[in-house]
Amino acid sequence: MKVKYVSHFVKFLILVLLAFSALIVVYVLPLSAHQIAQSWEKIDYLKEPLLLIGQLLMLLFMAGLIIILNLLYKFDKGRAFTFEFAKKVNWLAIMCAISVLFIIVIFFVLASLGGPGPGMALMLIGMGIVISILGSVLHLISIIIKQACSYKEEIDLTV
Fold first, then answer.
1. Backbone region of residue 122 per phi and psi (left: phi > 0; alpha: psi in -120 to 50; beta: other values)
2. Alpha helices in the chain (DSSP H)
């Protein structure tokens, strides 16, 4: 299969994921926060802050998807090995670090209220680890792309 078609398919999937993410931010998260606050009255006063943190995480995720769409567009145009491309990949790594901080905040807020259940605690810890690894890999890719750009400039200067 040609790279062009795969790239277009991935762009379509990302756009679908963006639409579902918008639905989650606007409808699902507020509804879930309301239901959780009703069933667990101990955290009723934390409904709004936790909802805000959840919506910020989703908006960060959506911004990351938009950056990935931009990177795919640059890749299609043959501008994958540029410093701008590496900078955007590094932004994705920074967004992963910010996401991990939000997850840590959620974990400690829930822990101060008697703690999340063991399943929720394992899920938060696992998400934090996976996102940390993803951010590290993205940062490494950014460094590799910057080095490739430097080598490319050196070769262009010597020719």
1. alpha
2. 3-23, 29-39, 47-76, 83-112, 118-158
Inter-residue contact 87 to 39 (CB < 8 Å): no
- Give the global pTM: 0.80
Angle at 140 (CA atoms; ends 138, 145), nearest 5 degrees: 95
Q: Report pLDDT digits (tens) over 31-50.
A: 888 887 787 777 777 778 87
71, 31 Cβ separation under 8 angstroms: no
Burial of 133 by CB count in 10 Å (0-12 exposed, 13-18 middle, 19+ buried)?
exposed
> Which among 110, 130, 25, 35 is positioned nearest to 119, based on CA atoms?
110
Q: How many residues appear in the chain? A: 159
